[in-house]
Amino acid sequence: xxxxxxxxxxxxxxxPIGPELDLHTFRPDEISSLLPEYFAECRQRxxxxxxxxxxxxxxxLRTGVHHLLATLPEVQQWIWPADETSGSWGATWxxxxxxN
Length: 100
What we know:
This protein is of the alpha+beta class. It has one domain (17-96): 2-Layer Sandwich (Ribosomal Protein S8, Chain: A, domain 1), CATH 3.30.1370.110. The chain has helices at residues 31-44, 60-69, and strands spanning 20-22, 49-53, 75-79, 91-96. The termini are far apart.
């Protein structure tokens, strides 16, 4: 059996799931898989109101998020822009349906 260099194997890091997802480090083409997975984890934990932070920039990420939200059956409704204390037009509130 060949020896392995443990330093070369990346360690899996579990990030806590909470009611906020900041998309600043993600590309628009990554959200189509990221958001459904995130919403599934939230629903399993009973988190049904989440804030998606997409930023104010050019609007490309926001537009992609909104198009996707309109297609996802687990999304009950979404509210954009968020209120002034929640990110204004740089964030969208999402209300999720309860898990069955």
